[in-house]
Amino acid sequence: MTQEIRLRFAPSPTGYFHVGGARTALYNWLVCKRLGGTFILRIDDTDEQRNRSEWTRGIIDALSWLEIDFDEGPYFQSQHKDRYLEVANELYEKGLAYYCSCTREEIDERARLRGGVPGYDGFCRHRGLASEAGYALRFMVPPGETLVNDVVRGAVAFDNSTIEDFILLKGNGTALYVLANFVDDVDLRISHVIRAEEHLPTTPKAVLLYEALKIQTPVFAHLPVLVNEKRVKLSKRRDRVAVEDFRDQGFLPEAMVNYLALLGWSPGDDLEFLDRQKMVELFDLSKVSKSPAFFDVVKMKHFNKHYIAAMDSDEFIKRCLPFLERNSWWQGSELQQASFRTIAPYVKERVALLTEVVEMVDFLFLDPSQLDVERYTLSDADVDMLLKFLSKVESIENFTRDTLEESFRSLGEEIGVALRKLQAPIRLSLTGRKIGPPLFVAMEVLGKERSLERIRDAIATRH
After folding, report:
1. Both 94 and 204 in a single domain?
2. Residues 172, 234: contact at Cβ < 8 Å?
3. Which of 11, 14, 95, 204 would be 146's cystine partner, CB 3.0–4.6 Å?
4. Which residues are catalytic?
5. Distance between CA 359 and CA 437 in Å, rounded?
6. Assigned domain for 394 exists
7. What are 242-263's pLDDT values in tens digits?
8. Cα dist. 35→10, 178, 267, 273 in Å?
9. Which of 251, 266, 297 is the last residue of a domain?
């Protein structure tokens, strides 16, 4: 009988959506699409003190933005507490688990007295305690070793003597993650467990539970850790890791998905830029590396720039609108939209993030008094060049990029100034910035009256 393919992504809603979680969700999704399986979203909200509903909403919204769609869910662990108690009782009734009255202080004190490795020593294993308030339920780890067959890491053997009889239920009856995770995976008929490397140490506990209840174990794959430029594991407290932040900075979901897919996996043939269909076609879990993967924001910006440049102008304009709408100067009038449509194709080639578009075009919609020309110093030579350029273009009737560029080049030859040096003070006068869209396109969109007014204002301000 062919095994049903069912994979899950099971984040905990304890903070912003981490890029490592996004990579895990993506790999699960790719395997599902490649094998024709079912992708499930499960929210592992067993940590009641740290869970918040806005984090759950953030996870769902971020997955939607990345276009990582799920077929079932979201399911919530907090809704299955009775089921965990049911399985815990089954393990107890079968003699596979026992109740323990030991407090943490007692465990630590015995460990101190005996020396050696700290931790629980099996004190209550054969005491035959019954369920009582405050008593934890522990799984009875058998002797021998537990083998975890991992697609990424191969066969990993764990000596059972290093695994203490782990807690299934706390003294208050709350299920611990290892039990809840196991029960949900069984009930959801999960065939593949693809998750972060940090879960590998707890995986033998899950395998022991599968074996104890004679249930087929799923395929395991533990993904390589993501590290920063210092090759230290990414931290929410230290590094930029929130998917929501990258979205708000103007990264495109298709660029981010493409980049995340390559953090630990290579399609071969030096391929980098892959659409989703190509990723699904080529993705192979067995080719995922176990070495740490460097999350390089600079390289992800390179991907983003590639995808922005490849967009058609209409799509680019559509993607830019939410970023323009954040600014008080954008009312979305027909005149504003027409100006933006004209300049958008030139801006598209020059930005790596959609947030950069705002600084490229705001000069079109601001009053001259709002420009930042005064941040920069215009020298006497700059003012002299502005005066000469002004006299050169004042008489132009057909105020287009071509006629402006012709006048500009003519002036450069007349006064013997490099075009780049001549362009700088003109750009500052018009836009208040040192970089921006092509100068003569900017002047054409501004129009003759506003362009000349800004140059005159810059000269007057300098004097």
Report:
1. yes
2. no
3. 204
4. 236
5. 10
6. yes
7. 999 999 999 999 999 999 999 9
8. 20, 27, 17, 22
9. 297
pTM for the model stands at 0.91
Q: Residue 264 belongs to a domain with what CATH number?
A: 3.40.50.620
In angstroms, the Cα distances linking 142 to 64, 201, 325, 384, 404 are 44, 17, 62, 88, 84
Cα 17 to Cα 59: distance, rounded to the nearest angstrom = 6
Whole-angstrom Cα distance, residue 227 to residue 246?
A: 17
Average pLDDT over residues 174-181: 95
Tokens of 52: 């918040």
Do residues 457 and 413 touch, judged by C-beta distance below 8 A?
A: no
Per residue in 390-421, pLDDT tens? 998 998 889 999 999 999 899 889 888 888 88
Band the pLDDT of 462: cuts 50, 70, 90.
low
Type of residue numbered 147: L
In the chain, the percentage of residues whose pLDDT exceeds 90 is 79
Same domain, 72 and 87: no
Using alpha carbons, select from 389, 355, 369, 351 the residue that is nearest to residue 432. 369
Separation of first and last alpha carbons in the chain: 86
Q: Are 266 and 287 in contact (CB under 8 A)?
A: yes
3-state helix, strand, coil in the chain (%, to 5): 50, 10, 35
